[in-house]
Amino acid sequence: MPDLSGIVKAYDIRGVVGEQLDEALVRDFGAAFALLVKTEAPTVVIGHDMRDSSPGLSAAFAEGVTSQGLDVVSIGLCSTDELYFASGSLNLPGAMFTASHNPAKYNGIKMCRSGAAPVGQDTGLAEIRDTVEQGVPVFEGRRGSVTERDVLGEYAGYLRGLVDLSGSRPLKVVVDAGNGMGGHTVPTVFAGLPIEIVPMYFELDGTFPNHEANPLDPKNIVDLQAKVRETGADAGLAFDGDADRCFVVDERGEPVSPSAITALVAVRELVKEPGGTIIHNLITSTGVPEIVAEHGGKPMRTRVGHSFIKAEMARTGAIFGGEHSAHYYFRDFWRADTGMLAALHVLAALGEQDGPLSALTQDFSRYAASGEINSTVDDQVARMLAVKDAYAGKSGAQIDELDGLTVRLAGGAWFNLRPSNTEPLLRLNVEAADRTAVQALTDDVLALVRG
């Protein structure tokens, strides 16, 4: 039996094309997915990004699905949140071919059940892996058929219907699509809005010739920052490769933290539904639950990861959720993540008043943060235990292990230390009142982590 543990991750399938992932294997994944969802729907919707390998792999997956008697609706080139839209609006299970921000040699599959419900290790992905490893059973009935459908216009219209920009002042916005799917979706979504787009790297190119399509890495937004300053734009937006995440910079070219965006959008959603529940993962700023509570909402803290966020949203009926990684989840979008909808909220909030984005977001940025710092370690468990032991005896320290190790100190500073699921890394996030306090706490923890 093949061992697929190296490519079947916690939330998706991802690997190097030609080495770990090829059309024959993907065909089996398609058949296994069909077996998983066969009782809930007769059809699967499939989309893909702009990587050279994506069309062939998505076609192979479709062959696997139809080999089990299910039909396929192919929506072709799309962003991941456009695939979620198709899954939600058509109430069909779906599969998206993308490796997000990974280099060109990678590809992968993000899958969901009907209504864009997530498929992760505990919700079907382990079952799919087991089916492929053990051999997909042959189906003797009729093969399914494949039809094509373009949902880009419907997707754009749906998003515009959720955020009213009709009263916005004219805005100039630089958009860096990173040669990813934002270059495909942004022109249609923003069509007819009072927004002048200054496009950067809209050409679809899965080799990512300009920079890696990961806007959370500071080096990948340098061009965007410069263009915002050069053009006197009101804001800048950067999308990752499959355009489900969106990162924001203000009119000065300064990054706006995803925590501040989470708080801003949460306040807007609470206006629509006072008293609603807002999900935030445990690495978002302490300012997020503070601001949510101040505006009458119910903050709910969760583990990191979209499957946990979506599960909590379903359990609590939450109206919105945000993560430090610039994933934003909306109940009005089938609890799925869409950076595009978050971007529209930011621009609507900006356009409703006369001040600059830096002033608007300042109210939502209360503390200083380190960002995520990775350390390669020989023994994750031993290093985590060393940090826990060092802080357990400190006066006023509060320790919890909801996701990794979180330590809150007297005075409000805190840090979270989490092991990577796929690499020998520990990930550290620190927050405190100011940069000096953040650096001091970061240095203390890293000294323990790195020995």
From TrEMBL:
GO BP terms: namely: carbohydrate metabolic process
Residue ranges of every copy of the Alpha-D-phosphohexomutase C-terminal domain listed in the record: 372-446
Question: Can you name one GO molecular function term for this protein?
Answer: intramolecular phosphotransferase activity
Q: Which domain of life is it from?
A: Bacteria
Q: Name one Pfam family in it.
A: PGM_PMM_II
Q: What residue ranges are annotated as transmembrane?
A: none
CDD domains reported for this sequence? PMM_PGM (cd03089)
Give the record's keywords alphabetically: Isomerase, Magnesium, Metal-binding, Phosphoprotein
Identify which cofactors the protein needs according to its UniProt entry.
Mg(2+)
Q: Tell me where in this chain the Alpha-D-phosphohexomutase alpha/beta/alpha domain is found.
A: 8-134, 159-253, 262-366
UniProt similarity note? Belongs to the phosphohexose mutase family.
Output the PANTHER family linked to this UniProt entry.
PHOSPHOMANNOMUTASE
What's the protein called, per UniProt?
Phosphomannomutase
